[in-house]
Design a protein that fits this description.
- The N terminus is likely disordered.
- The chain starts with 18 loop residues before the first helix and ends with a helix.
- Helices cover about 40% and strands about 15% of the residues.
- The protein is α/β, with parallel strands linked by helices.
- It has an 8-stranded mixed β-sheet, with helices on both faces.
- The protein is built from 11 helices and 8 strands.
- The longest helix has 20 residues.
- The protein has a single domain, classed as Alpha/Beta hydrolase fold, catalytic domain (Rossmann fold).
Length: about 325
């Protein structure tokens, strides 16, 4: 649906606009609305930019008064793994920028094997785009990268959405050898996207149905798709997870240095990064709110996308910290 707008009572000179002038105004405003409505990860072209370290693939779409929202992806995920039911409504109020880190998808370079290394690449990308201030949406591994970016360059980050993620020194982070996860990953009868449904969504009938709808939405993008991540991506990122579980000095002390408002989100049945890590974040971040979804797992933002977008928009649009 195209948003309605009020019409001016007259021109700058005070006279009533002619029919032709009104029609011209309507066409201009209609085109602007259509551009905003058509802003979608399903259709946005993949772009490339040379940075000081590598060439990065990204998608950039949307328009509005809000700061650009930089989206940082999950374990082995590419640009194609962002749900348009999350990205597209958020793009109605701001630019949404989906970023593919080094060695993932069509970005060049080696996959970093540490979260700080990934943050360095994300900052190089931001600098190449000339962005001075952004909001961050970090999902899973991306939420860890977001925390590191906020520590490395606090002036860049206004607000953060930290979804299905963990603090440095967190617990049980992406241990794919756990029986309940290994059984899914090793099942040769399950296609890749069906494995994603089993891993990201709770075992209930309603959650699995939401997962099936999620992968159907991902499949709507038919052209200009990214290559699927291979074992080299997985191994480097798993190494980063193991290092992220470690800490030196006082546990969670770094979190107290992150002053930006944070909305922490997770599903209560997340088997990949258990929800207790979200409780740790909300407890130790100085300015955090916690949102949990029942009957949801790692992909709660995709299962309850309408609710997530509504809560995320309220959070991002708020002027009061």
């Amino acid at each position: 649906m195209i948003a309605t707008r009020s019409w001016s009572a007259g021109t700058k000179s005070g006279r009533r606009p002619t029919l032709k002038e009104n029609e011209k105004q309507f066409v201009i405003r209609l085109r602007k609305d259509i551009v905003m409505i058509d802003a979608s990860n399903t259709t946005a072209p993949t772009q490339f930019i040379e940075a000081r370290l590598e060439k990065y693939a990204y998608r950039r779409f949307g328009k509005g008064a809000g700061l650009p929202l930089l989206c940082l992806q999950h374990f082995t995920g590419t640009l194609d793994n962002w749900d348009p039911s999350v990205t597209d409504p958020l793009a109605l109020g701001r630019e949404v920028i989906l970023f593919e880190s080094a060695g993932v998808g069509r970005s060049t370079g080696e996959v970093p094997d540490s979260v700080p290394g990934m943050a360095t690449r994300a900052l190089a990308f931001v600098d190449a785009l000339g962005l001075e201030e952004v909001d961050l949406l970090g999902f899973s591994l991306g939420g860890m990268v977001a925390q590191e970016i906020a520590l490395e360059r606090p002036s860049l980050v206004r607000r953060m959405l930290l979804v299905a993620t963990a603090p440095e020194g967190g617990e049980d982070i992406m241990h794919l050898e756990k029986p309940e996860l290994k059984k899914i990953i090793d099942d040769s009868n399950l296609p890749g996207l069906q494995k994603l449904v089993k891993l990201f969504f709770a075992p209930s009938e309603s959650s699995q149905a939401a997962g099936a709808a999620f992968v159907a939405r991902l499949a709507k993008r038919r052209a200009d798709r990214e290559p699927i991540s291979g074992p080299n991506v997985a191994m480097a990122q798993l190494t980063a997870f193991r290092a992220w579980e470690q800490f030196s000095g006082e546990r969670f002390a770094k979190l107290r240095k992150i002053g930006q408002p944070c909305l922490v989100v997770n599903g209560v049945f997340d088997n990949m990064i258990p929800v207790r890590n979200s409780y740790m974040l909300s407890e130790h971040l100085p300015n955090a709110m916690l949102l949990t979804y029942s009957d949801a797992g790692h992909g709660s933002l995709f299962q309850f996308h309408d609710s997530f977008v509504r809560q995320a928009s309220l959070f991002l649009n708020s002027e009061v910290d």
